[in-house]
């Protein structure tokens, strides 16, 4: 199997976020339009994006579980990972329920999503954004899932190199926090 370092979670998560966000936006726009071909087309895109996004979110959650239990981290990043995991599980549950509701309505022949469905979908979109924010924090604040961080002493305060030419040997600092044993924590 193709190995993705450190794991597959970053691959799947971008599909989940993009598809579910498209679904939320298009369902809201379709709800605002009174009728017509554009509204119908938006609803089709919104439904398919929701169904595909929910499917990818299952894969995202599975890959996230493996990441949670395999990425080297310290205590502060463990707390941040646990918070992200919990938000992720709420996001997964919300979108699975909404996707099932949408599929049920589609199967019954209900053409237009009701205001309650769209409001809950919008709320789930806010939860999705919070989950994504926390995931970004894991990478960009805690440095999880990266193989090496660039040396920042020379680049943060000013430029002492040419962006047009790659350095012969880029300076990198290997960051490997102390391993964290998940068996000592209740999950």
How does this model look, in words?
The protein has 187 residues and is mainly alpha-helical. It has one domain. The chain contains 4 helices and 2 strands; from the N terminus they run ααααββ. The protein has a two-stranded antiparallel sheet. Helix 3 packs antiparallel against helix 4. The longest helix is centred in the middle third of the chain and has 34 residues. It is elongated. The chain starts with 8 loop residues before the first helix and ends in a 14-residue tail after the last strand.
User: Into how many domains do the coordinates divide?
Assistant: 1
The percent of residues in helical segments reads 55-70%
Rg, rounded, reads: 21 Å
Shape: elongated
Number of strands: 2
Secondary structure class reads mainly alpha
Task: Give the SSE map.
Elements: H1 9-32, H2 37-68, H3 75-108, H4 115-140, E1 149-150, E2 172-173
Antiparallel strand pairs: 1-2
Helix pairs in contact: 1-2, 1-4, 2-3, 3-4
